[in-house]
Amino acid sequence: MDVMLREIDDENRDAVLALSVAPGQRRFVGTVQGALDDAAAYPHANPWYRAVYAGGEPVGFVMLSWDVEPQPPDLIGPWFLWKLIIDESRQRLGYGAQAVRLVAELVQREGAAELLTSYVDADDGPAGFYARLGFEPTGEVDGDGEIIVRLPLTPGSRQPR
């Protein structure tokens, strides 16, 4: 099923806010409302966010720091995948991977050479998901101790796998 990114508006806001990961995953990504609160609290991170749709229904949420001046360890960039939330009932269907592919293609068209993200180093964390998509560790950690990974975006390439 094709995935698309849509702006959040009055018509879909409640459905997007209702999206939730499994309880054990909340320590890794939080909630959509928490992400929107972060976006409001950190405007200098130039937050860009969209609902992830499949089959005409919201299945997730994605938020980036959009072309920012990096200020490590707290502001990573210039292109940083800040949040990726796929609803618990829609996980393991490929929507997260498709959403990351769309984001990678979008930022690459904007001139990004790489897409960065970070994750908590835990056995049940998202490290394997990002590795399967082609992200590789940078050797750095963010201000919260999360591992920073990068997806190289080379001109003319179709990333990620």
From TrEMBL:
CDD domains: NAT_SF
Record-linked SUPFAM superfamilies: Acyl-CoA N-acyltransferases (Nat)
Keywords per UniProt: Acyltransferase, Transferase
Signal peptide boundaries: none
Enzyme class (EC, first level): transferase
Domain annotation N-acetyltransferase: ranges: 3-154
Protein name according to UniProt: Diamine N-acetyltransferase
